[in-house]
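Look over this today:
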Amino acid sequence: MQKFTLEILFHIIGIGSASGLVYKNDSLFIISDNSSFLYEYQITEKQLSKINLVENPQENIPKKDKYDFESIALKGNELHLLGSGSTSKREKRMIYNLDSKKTEQKDLSKLYQNLKQTASITNDELNIEGAVFDNEKWLLFQRGNGANSKNGIVKINDNLNKNSTIEFIPIQLPKIKQLETSFTDAILVDDKIYFLATAENTNSTYHDGEILGSIIGRMNSQTFEIEFTQQISETQKFEGLTFYKKTETEIEFLICEDNDSDVLEATIYKLSLSK
């Protein structure tokens, strides 16, 4: 068992259904799966700002219309936001340049179609919930909460386009109450991948179910062998994970919880793990 502490760090009013985090230079960049804004929370000033990702951005977008941004990753000076791919409207990638403050939109439909064919994933089971950029390649984390429980890591070259080389690595995750957990986010810290996974009592990538708990785990970034997992909640669906700081004895993360509601409020937790 891994020794850990989990504590509430702060509440942010103005964000609902937080689904991904990136911490950089005392700012916390946050995505929401039912919003077309990128949010920046300046921690010292306790100030929240909204960045338009599209024309006429909205919050609390109806489920059938939302972009479903579940993944956010830092590549150089760019933030990359990826839709989950679980419907045709969720096949967009937004690239926000931290220097120029400009946003670029890319279509992922052909890449996702190729991904489904390569991994033998059906249209209604694709559900990308995490993204990591590692040494000229992307790692996308497929949440296997569909009928076939197909958790896995999708290894793709740098381009993330229809011509990208795709490899799918199935991953078996531990169970909570006889239900297999499924990926909800992942990050790279040094040469290790840390990931979140949740057990949700549903066989649909579209409809929500009862939450049975969440775990954090670590795996080797080259072999993808799981080195440990630790349950951190029996009731919460943790979806966003970012590195915060580390000492000689501990590594600290910030994580967020998807409350699956229209309430525009987010709770950010600090998760500390002993090394």
Notes: The radius of gyration is 17 Å. Residues 109-119 form the longest helix (11 residues).
